[in-house]
């Protein structure tokens, strides 16, 4: 019953919102407020990605443990990514190499928060997949991603998509549609 009521209310809100977007008939003092509200509507549609990132953030500092997807022990890169997505019911691969065939490929310029970045291993000249992470934020065109690294941080951390990672970048895929 509650679910049905929620769906009804949400449907009514969307119907109202689509008709009310032309707010020129409103008094001037309300036009700005309505525009502000409608500009926030896309934020609601990205709530799945927001929840996913919030959950991933709760794992910050967990140690890097090779071949592990156990939050009590720690994670390797693909163990972390698969654990995060599996928590939300997404069926994703367990190994970084298999992520190349998962989800929907996206151009890096079109990638969004919650998409998976796929990299080579630590040597960028060896063009074989060996690392994955989840886009954490995109601000002013600058991407940060959350991942479990065996490098300096040696665990779950947020890293800038810097020149080193750009040299290792292979592709991006969208799991959350």
Describe it for me?
The chain is of the alpha+beta class and about 180 residues long. It has two domains: about 40 residues; about 130 residues, endopeptidase domain like (from Nostoc punctiforme) (endopeptidase fold (from Nostoc punctiforme)), CATH 3.90.1720. Helix content is about 35%, strand content about 25%. It has six helices and eight strands, in the order ααααββαβββββαβ. The chain has a six-stranded antiparallel sheet. Strands 1-2 form a two-stranded antiparallel sheet. A hairpin with an 8-residue loop joins β4 and β5. The chain is globular, with a radius of gyration of 20 Å. The two termini are about 25 Å apart. About 25% of the residues are buried. The N terminus is likely disordered. It comes from Pedobacter planticolens.
List its salient traits:
6 helices; 177 residues; alpha+beta; 6-stranded antiparallel β-sheet; 2 domains; endopeptidase fold (from Nostoc punctiforme); disordered N terminus; 8 strands; two-stranded antiparallel ribbon
Task: Spell out the helices and strands N to C.
Answer: HHHHEEHEEEEEHE
Describe the biggest sheet? 6 strands, antiparallel
Strand content: 15-25%
In the CATH scheme, what's the topology name of the largest domain? endopeptidase fold (from Nostoc punctiforme)
Task: Please state how the strands of the largest beta sheet are arranged side by side.
Answer: 3-8-4-5-6-7
> What is the CATH level 1 assignment of the largest domain?
Alpha Beta
Distance linking N and C termini: 27 Å
